[in-house]
Amino acid sequence: MNGPSPARPDGDTVPLRVAGPVDELAAQLADRTAPAVHPYEVAALLESEGLTGDQVRERYGHPDIFSLARELHRRVPRGFPEPGPGADPWAPDHLRCVLRGLLFALPGLSYPLTAPWWNGPGAVPALVVAGLLSWAWGQALSHRTYGRLATGRREAGLTLSTGAPAGAVLAALAGLAVAGPGAAALFALGQSVYLAAAGVLLVLGRERLLAAALVPLTAGGALLLHGEPGPAVRVGLPLLSLAATAVLAVRAVRDALGAAAVPGAARPGHLPSVPYGLFGLAAGVLVLSAGARHPYAVVALTISMGPAEWLLYRFRGAAVAALRASTTMRGFRLRVARALAVCLGAYTVPLVPAALLTGAPAGELAALGAVLWVALLLQAFGVGWPPAGVCLAAAAPVAVAATGPSPWPWLATACCATAATVLAGLALYSLGRPFAHA
Questions:
Q1: Is 410 strand, coil or helix?
Q2: Is the per-residue pLDDT at 413 higher than 90?
Q3: Dist. CA 358–CA 291, nearest whole Å
Q4: Which of 234, 268, 302 is a domain's end point?
Q5: Confidence (pTM)
Q6: Residue 2 counted as domain residue
Q7: Mean pLDDT score across all residues of the chain
């Protein structure tokens, strides 16, 4: 009889392999040896781990450390881990954004404080015309100054030293032409000087100085809430804030002019700043039109400009992160669209309860906020003319309707909603391309 045949492995049997010291070492160091492009890098790693020649020979059975390094390099597959998330180059300054929102709204306290002196025939049109010119001029001047800041602080100071006074004079003369000599013209002059000086401080990053200058005005507004503060408070505190703002602006420009000049710095043309001024004009028309009907809603909109600026930074940071994470154009566009939707929603959704609390149409205020935010976003990426044209097209019928009773109470909402939709499409088209974020 034949005994049992010796077992032989068939095709489905996998032989077991006992891991040796080299296998254990390869598994232990796999995450650090996988990126190595040459065995010498593995050898350097082994030396840094304190491995001696005796250990290499006695434990791992290799004549030297280089032989062991070659074996580890052969056994471990090459792998190159993705770099960790880099620092966000557009991380916003939270306190600065909140402060800027307050700085945009606090000057409005001067109007109820000084109303008994300037509130007369032709006063409101004069202040509106002067304010619109100041906004338009200030937007264009800010764009030009930021461009000059990229060259040097002295060059920016030169731009502000001529541009800011010219804008104040132009706006004040416009107010005088509308109201004629009197208290309203004087108030238009003060308004123009303040807007020019405040613009200087904001462009040069002196928000805290501007906040300090507005302390007297803020105190006057607080006193007004508790009763009649008297003529000295009504006039003196706004004048004190105006004088402080003007003096601080002059000092800021003087400090900028004291910086070293950049040799061979070329002066840019004025045409690139024109669309930013036109946007300021259109935005002013839309905001003032809403403010004439719902003043408290516009106060909320003005304060929201601080969070709006914060969200602009957040979108830019999200776009850079999308650029790093995407491997296809479609994936990048989807990430950008998602970031745009999230940031725009985060800005406009809180405007709805603000509108309801102030008795304004929620749709109109949210649509107006969307127009302003997306237009500012496009401008931040250097897209100037398209948002200016869209906003002017929306502001024109609103301005015409504001001159008298309108049979279409929904006109402002329709214009802003249409403009917001067009601007959102422009943003997706312009910012959905990688080179826009390079």
A1: coil
A2: yes
A3: 11
A4: 268
A5: 0.81
A6: no
A7: 90
